[in-house]
Amino acid sequence: MDTIRHHQQHLRRVFILGLPSRIASVWFGSGEVSTACSIGVFGNQLGVAVGFLLPPMLVPASDDKEALSYHIRVMFFGTAAIATALFVIVLLVFREEPPVAPSQAQAMRRQKRRSDYSYWQSIQRLLTNKAFVLLIITYGINTGSFYSVSTLLNPMFIHHYQGQEVNAGRVGLTIVVAGVLGSLLCGVWLDRTKKFKQTTFAVYCLSFTGMIIFTFTLNLGHLWVVFVTAGLLGFFMTGYIPLGFEFAAELTYPESEGTSSGLLNAAAQLFGLIFTVVQGQLTKHFSPLIGNIFICCSLLLGTMLTGLIKADLRRLKANLERGTAQLCSLDDGPERPLDGPVPGYVPVDQDSP
Asked: Residue 353 burial (CB < 10 Å; 0-12/13-18/19+)?
């Protein structure tokens, strides 16, 4: 039953983790989309942080199996009730998309919608996009490494700090909280600069650097060092998640962001499973140091592959070209109709004084 539960949770994550990119692109303009995506990732990470805090409070330690079973049922049924209520609210209140496209890229996508759209043909087109395939691999390596380190954090920490189970949980919480801040800052930075490849490559390098520092300082015997290095690791590794989503949306436009982010998450789950097994075996048979060195080598490979990705920013080009064309049409005369909003142009009510 425990195995089935874990598989169900991972299946859910593939769908949930892809939502921020899709929702952000449909509802927010080109100057807000990356920040909106990062806020979506922030919400997911906030849920993970709550997961570190609430279970020990809702399920207190007890030798009474009946009392323990009761508290676990209360926690699970409470979670199910909240999730069901949110599902009903989303179903009844939220619309699929706004009545007016928030960006030129979304307006063009709406105009090009076809009734014969095929999900599998979209998958085929994405998998023949060399830049996106490289991003799938590099995203899988980075996020899979994060999943592996997070999963094995407790045994790694206890190996060097015996009897410090409580602090092991606090280190995990530190990683999540730092990651929340990292994802928000990376999203805001993308909206300000539009430097997708440069930012992705820089954060990947910093993730690799953070993993090296964490690896070789874990056994120093100083708890504060572990908290600092774990925070740096979480800041950059989690900050990479919205960067990957947004970079994928740029490389694959006009394909659906939900499809591209779904492939990224599938790769992350696959690499996470493989890395967790390999790192776990290395940690068990050798030491946490050897297991972490394996993750460092993987991140080094991912960093080099990220440098090979061609920055073909299709969505950004669509927004810029469409906006330029419509501004030119304004200069040519008012008789030429516009078929989408112009950035910075605010319509005026003709009946107003």
From this structure: exposed
- Distance CA(138)–CA(204), nearest Å, equals 9
| Distance between CA atoms of residues 260 and 249, nearest Å | 7
332 sits in which H/E element:
helix 314-332
pLDDT per residue over 183-194, tens digit each? 888 878 887 888
Report the distance separating Cα 238 and Cα 183, nearest Å.
6
- Examine residue 254 and say whether the peptide bond preceding it is cis (omega within 30 degrees of 0): yes
- Which of 180-194, 228-242, 316-330 has the largest mean confidence? 228-242
- Burial (CB < 10 A; 0-12, 13-18, 19+), residue 95, is exposed
CA neighbours closer than 13 Å in the CB half-sphere of residue 65: 0
State the CB neighbour count (10 A cutoff) for residue 202: 16
Q: Which amino acid is present at 79?
A: T
Q: What are phi and psi for residue 90, nearest 5 degrees?
A: -60, -40
* Ordered structural domains, the chain, with CATH: 2-60+119-316 (1.20.1250.20)
> How remote is the C-alpha of 12 from its chain's centroid?
14
Residue type at position 341: P
* pTM exceeds 0.85 for this model: no
Give the 3-state DSSP-derived string for 189-258, with helices as H, strands as E and coil as C.
HHHHHCCHHHHHHHHHHHHHHHHHHHHHHCCCCCHHHHHHHHHHHHHHHHHHHHHHHHHHHHHHCCCCHH
